[in-house]
Amino acid sequence: MFAVIKTGGKQFRVTANDKITAAKIEGNAGDTVAFDSVLMLTEGEKTTLDAKALSEITVVGEIVEQARGEKVIAFKKRRRQNSKRKRGFRAELTVIRITDILTGGKKPEMKKADAAAPVAEKAKAAPKAAKAEAGEEAEKPKKAAAKKAPAKKAKDEASEA
After folding, report:
1. Positive or negative, the Cα torsion across 41, 11, 23, 55?
2. How many CB atoms lie within 10 A of CB 42?
3. Is 129 helix (H, G, I), strand (E, B) or coil?
4. pLDDT tens per residue, range 66-122
5. SS3 sequence, 79-128?
6. How many CB atoms neighbour CB 3 within 10 A?
7. CB atoms within 10 A of CB 60
8. What is d(CA 95, CA 80) in angstroms, rounded to the nearest whole number?
């Protein structure tokens, strides 16, 4: 069984366990994404193109990683005019692994990859906590910076005299 889905302005022919690289989709690695815009479904010899039947089909995938594409350089030169322009561009991409093709109006079980985020936050918070404890023990009032005297107005005084 395979389906043709549309995402990021492109069409992809997908089956279960396929990996596709599409335009950036919001989410972190491990998040579940659903594609409702199915254009065609084929099960064995049976092909479905009916819009009403396709509206009940959902393709479910899991975000593998967020990546960036190859650098594309657009170089333009106009000969004998000393005119040239060089621009670079890297596309934001998402690698998705298709997990299932749901038919009959079934809805996917959406999950977020929250398990990795708290671990990273704890790792960042641990040094801050150590600094806070050390800061409480060695906290001393800071001296105020000395103020500079106002600049003298030499020109005004000379013109008055």
Report:
1. negative
2. 15
3. helix
4. 999 999 999 999 998 999 999 999 999 999 999 999 988 888 888 887 654 444 444
5. CCCCEEEEEEEEEEEEEEEEEEEECCCCCCCCCCCCCHHHHHHHHHHHHH
6. 24
7. 20
8. 44
pLDDT, residue 97, reads 97
User: What is residue 123's three-state secondary structure?
Assistant: helix
pLDDT at 29: 93
Which residue is it, tokens 């170089």? 75
* DSSP secondary structure of 129-146: HHHHHHHHHT--PPPPPP
pLDDT tens, 122-152? 445 555 555 555 555 555 566 777 777 777 7
Phi and psi torsions of 30, nearest 5°: 100, -15
Phi, psi of 14 (to 5 degrees): -130, 150
Q: pTM for the full model?
A: 0.63
Mean pLDDT in residue range 13-17: 95
Check: CB of residue 56 under 8 Å from CB of residue 102: no
The vertex-91 CA angle with 115 and 63, nearest 5°, equals 25
Q: Looking at this protein, which amino acid is placed at residue 17?
A: N
